[in-house]
Predict the structure.
Amino acid sequence: MRRMSDQPERWTEATVYPDMWADPDDDPRNNENSPEGELATLQDFLANYRLTLRMKCEGLDAEQLARRSVPPSTMSLLGLLRHLAEAERDWRNWITDGEPVPKLYGAKDADFHGAVAEQAVVDAAHADLEREQAATDAALAEHPDLGERVGKDGIAIRELMVHRIEEYARHCGQADLLRECVDGRVGQ
């Protein structure tokens, strides 16, 4: 078992900028074409944060993904994957006037508590996140007007989109630190 005092050496694959995750020419988030319009811009930022989270988890085994940050925190990269799957599901509840869809993992904080070092849990977390993202994207595609107010609370689609970006951005920042603690890899 790895102790918190066992610090991995910092490293990166980038050669152009040593504090980057990848060289600019190799970074799949680099896009030469700027999106046209507000909705396309919001969707582009969301897609890049989603990709960043996947990149932070690539190449790690189940134990590394489930490794908790600093006691008593329950945060891990695997927990973040599960948490964001749960968040995507909950955002659909904001859109509807109907009954909310049930929690994916059950009780409060089960997304983090259930993030255990088993490959089946890792595989399920990736599948859950992909499925929930697609379902939320499809639900929001029915509301292309960013000013439209939806759901019981009358939230604007724009506010929901910005909140999604904020949630992914915050958790990508945490993923930066978690990944560095796991194997020393640094970068944006």
In short: The CA atoms of residues 94 and 153 lie 7 Å apart. The mean pLDDT is 91.
